[in-house]
């Protein structure tokens, strides 16, 4: 069972890229972020044509999250994050698919920091940590997949010294990730690639993709009951190089069913 996360950076504007990737790789479950589309304008039919059913939480011009499933039913369990400090922003959706609970998240960026946006990022992260702890306590197989807007360690960014004051890399943001790992979640990509230079985002500026001047901010955290079922994980880096692609690349894990 392949579960992927992909910040599409505008689903309708980049629909050809998304459909090409889905048709090429055929993941079983996909978490999407930054839909940037109102609820009524989500391209559900185009996805159904490829065999994917979907649930989504849209928002005009900003944010938005969705979960897709191929040849499987989606049983929605949550729409919105409990305790969200600003529930008008569409940042979390959750569903059970083939015996696995999948949470799709888009954690706030937080820049500029310090400031109100960074405060919101940390408040949202606190609410997410509380919810993640409750999920751990259930003992269920859970994957929390999405754009965390957190660079966990200096190994996850090109030239970390340039990111010292950025909201994605400030100590407060990195502590959020550490707190999640301390709960018992496993960073699936680092489980298989502990030392590898592995990025999921490359800016559109300064020829970042060609220079591999990237960041790792898209993560899949798996609960303890899933760790032994992890078989593979990686980044579909080449998708970032496609014409009119998102500045993120799809990131995925495979688990035994």
UniProtKB/TrEMBL annotation:
UniProt keyword annotation of Glycoprotein present: no
Feature type site, description Important for catalytic activity: 218
InterPro entries in the cross-refs: AP_endonuc_1, AP_endonuclease_F1_BS, AP_endonuclease_F1_CS, Endo/exonu/phosph_ase_sf, Endo/exonuclease/phosphatase, ExoIII-like
Cofactor note: Probably binds two magnesium or manganese ions per subunit.
BP GO annotations: DNA repair
Catalytic class of the enzyme: hydrolase
Protein name as annotated: Exodeoxyribonuclease-3
Species: Brevundimonas bullata
């Amino acid at each position: 069972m392949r579960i992927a996360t992909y910040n599409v950076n505008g689903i309708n504007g980049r629909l050809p890229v998304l459909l090409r990737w889905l048709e090429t790789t055929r993941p079983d479950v996909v978490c999407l972020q930054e839909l940037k589309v109102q609820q009524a304008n989500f391209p559900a039919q185009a996805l159904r044509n490829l065999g994917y059913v979907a649930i989504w939480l849209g928002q005009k011009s900003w944010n938005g999250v969705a979960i897709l499933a191929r040849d499987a039913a989606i049983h929605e369990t949550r729409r919105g994050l409990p305790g969200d400090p600003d529930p008008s922003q569409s940042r979390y959706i959750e569903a059970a698919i083939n015996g696995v609970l999948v949470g799709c998240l888009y954690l706030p960026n937080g820049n500029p920091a310090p400031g109100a946006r960074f405060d919101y990022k940390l408040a949202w992260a606190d609410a997410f940590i509380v919810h993640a702890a409750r999920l751990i306590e259930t003992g269920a197989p859970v994957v929390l997949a999405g754009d965390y807007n957190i660079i966990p360690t200096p190994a996850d960014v090109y030239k970390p010294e340039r990111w010292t004051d950025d909201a994605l890399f400030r100590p407060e943001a990195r502590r959020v990730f550490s707190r999640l790992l301390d709960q018992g979640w496993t960073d699936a990509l680092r489980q298989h690639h502990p030392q590898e230079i592995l990025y999921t985002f490359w800016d559109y500026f300064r020829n970042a993709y060609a220079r591999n001047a990237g960041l790792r901010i898209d993560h899949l955290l798996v609960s303890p009951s899933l760790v032994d079922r992890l078989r593979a994980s990686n980044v579909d880096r080449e998708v970032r190089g496609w014409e009119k692609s998102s500045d993120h690349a799809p990131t995925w894990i495979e688990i035994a069913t």
